[in-house]
Amino acid sequence: MSLVALPDTVASTLFGLFDVMKGAGLMAVASAGTSAHPPFHVDIVSETAGPVQLVSGVPVDGRSIDAVETTDVVIVPSVLLRPEGWRKARYPRLVDWVHRMHDRGAVICSACSGIFLLAETGLFDGKDATVHFAYARAFGVAYPGVAVHPERTLVVSGRREELVSSGASTTWHDLALYLIARYAGATTAQEVARLFALQWHQDGLTPYIIFEGRTDHGDAEIQSAQEWLREHFSVANPVDEMIRRSKLAERTFKRRFVSATGLTPITYVQRLRIEDAKRRLERTDASVDEISWRVGYEDPAFFRRLFKRTTGVAPGVYRKRFRVPDFTRRALNRESGGRETMRIGGFDDSETDR
C-alpha cells in the first residue's frame, strides 16, 4: 500500500491513514492468532526521494515513486486547496506513475480532496466519485467529466471496483475500514474500528452539508430576492411575497429563479428553513414543535418529514449527533460565569425561555 505525500497534503489524513492501516496489521495478527503476516505493508511515497514538507509545515520522508514498480493500493490523502483553486499539471510524473500502477492492477483511492490529483489521470472520467462538499463546485468546474456526489461518504467505481473515493474530511475512516474489510475481512475491520473508536458514516454526508444558495449568477433581480429571503424565510407565503416585491410576472420570476439558483423558489425557501432549524437543534433546548413554528411551519409532522427528506435523518437524531455535549456546555457556562448564550442568525437561544 502506497500513501502519496505532496506539498499540498494535509498531515492529519496522511498520518491517520498510516496509523490505522498499520493498526490493521497489528489487529490481524492479534485476532488471527496463527498468522505473523499483517495484511498491509504501508509505504509513504512521493515524486522524489527525501523529505517532503506538507502543507502544515510537517516534514515527512517519502520513498521515491521511481523505486516502486508495483503496489496493490495507492491512496492520495486530502490536499488543501488554495484560494485560487487546484492548479493542474504540477505533478506530471506522479500522475503518470498512478496511471501506471492502475494498469498493473492497483486499486486507486482518494481521501477527500485527493481526488483532484487523481482526476488528472483521466481514470475517473465517466465514473462516479465523491469529494469534500466544500470543494464540489470547484471540482465540477475543473473536471466536468467526473460525476461527483459530495453527499456520499464512499464511492466505489470502475470495472474492477478499483477506483475508490471518500468524501469530506474524516470519511477517510470509512475508506480505511473499507480497505481493511476488503483485504483482511470484516472481522478485522470491526476490531480496528473498536481499537480506534472509528464509526462508519452510514447516513452519508447530507446532514453535514451547510446550504448556501448560489449568488454568482449575475441576475440582480433574483439576488435581491435572495437577500430579502435570507432574513424573511419564515414569514407566511414567502414565495408570493418575493414575486410581489420583484414586480416580475410570476412565471418570469420562477423561471429566472431556477435558472439563477438551480432550485425552485419553494425548494430554496425550504432549504433555508431547514438550515435554520439545524442550528436551533444544535444550539438550543427548544422542542422540535417549537422549532417547526419558528422557521415557518405550523404543521410539526410536515416539518419532521421535510427535515428527514432534506438531511437524511430525523430532527431528534440530528440533535443528538450535532449538539454540543452536556459536559462541554457545562464547562462553557462555568467559564462565562452563567448561562452560555449562542447566537443564531438574528436571535439567541434565550428566546426559547419565553
Q: What would you say this structure looks like, in words?
A:
The chain has 354 residues and is an alpha/beta fold. Helices cover 46% and strands 12% of the residues. Strand 9 and strand 10 form a beta hairpin. Helix 7 packs antiparallel against helix 8. The longest helix is centred in the N-terminal third of the chain and has 22 residues. The protein starts with a strand and ends in a 6-residue tail after the last strand.
In short:
This protein is an alpha/beta fold.
CATH superfamily of the largest domain: Class I glutamine amidotransferase (GATase) domain
What CATH first level of the largest domain would be assigned?
Alpha Beta
First-last Cα distance: 58 Å
Structural class by sheet pairing and helices = alpha/beta
Task: Characterize the biggest β-sheet.
Answer: 8 strands, mixed
Give Rg in angstroms: 24 Å
Q: Overall 3D geometry? A: globular
**Element order, helices and strands?**
EHEEEEHEHEHEEEHHHHHHHHHHEE
Beta-strand percentage range: 5-15%
List the helices and strands and how they pair.
Elements: E1 2-4, H1 11-32, E2 43-46, E3 50-53, E4 59-64, E5 73-76, H2 92-103, E6 107-111, H3 115-119, E7 128-129, H4 136-142, E8 147-148, E9 154-157, E10 163-166, H5 172-184, H6 186-196, H7 220-232, H8 238-246, H9 250-261, H10 265-283, H11 288-295, H12 300-311, H13 315-322, H14 326-336, E11 343-344, E12 347-348
Parallel strand pairs: 1-2, 1-5, 2-4, 5-6, 6-10, 7-8
Antiparallel strand pairs: 3-4, 9-10, 11-12
Helix pairs in contact: 1-5, 1-6, 5-6, 7-8, 10-11
